[in-house]
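Hi C.,

You asked whether I'd gotten around to modeling the 208-residue construct. I have! Everything is below, sequence then structure, no commentary in between.
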Amino acid sequence: MMKLYAGVAVAAVAALLGGSLIYIQQQRSGDAFAECRQGQIAGGDIGGPFTLVNPAGQTVTDAEVLTKPSLVYFGYTFCPDVCPLDMARNVEAVDILEERGFDVTPVFISIDPERDTPDALGDYASNMHPKLIALTGSADQVKAAANAYKTIYKKQETGDEFYLVDHMTFTYLMLPGEGFVDFFRREITSEQMADSVACFVEAGNAGT
């Protein structure tokens, strides 16, 4: 029942809150990534500096983490179904890309710092994928990172440790030197994600 409720809750929040993201059309000639975009809209003031904590307990910044093309996802380790499916898709896309010669980093930022300690995220990352960078932080640090990516989350107050967290489910593609270039919705497959990421990386390399 908890899994069903979580799925319904997250789907509802994603549908209701998804519209709060503001995207700016980038149709101008000279957009090196125009042919790679998932739709007619992309870009915008998304992404930015953050300071978080890695599984070793070290404070890290976005400049230290996003050194390669990266797929950034906000979720939490206690998420019963949505996050595991999304992250499984993301790391599968990373594996597909690696087979094609692209080095892409999957990044997981917890929106549940109360339970997602550095140790918990270390276990999560080791079980999920060897390349996965999992980050947590104080409530303020996590909120600042989420605000930078225009992502929204809300803890369900149940009065116990089994609470769920409603949250948006976009995966953000970040490129070194470019920042945010596009996002992926839940419906996209790992193959489709890999194709799109490869297109962006190749277009970015062609422009350098």
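If it helps when you're writing up: The beta strands are 51-53, 59-61, 70-75, 105-110, 133-135, 153-155, 165-167, 171-175, 179-184.

Thanks,
B.
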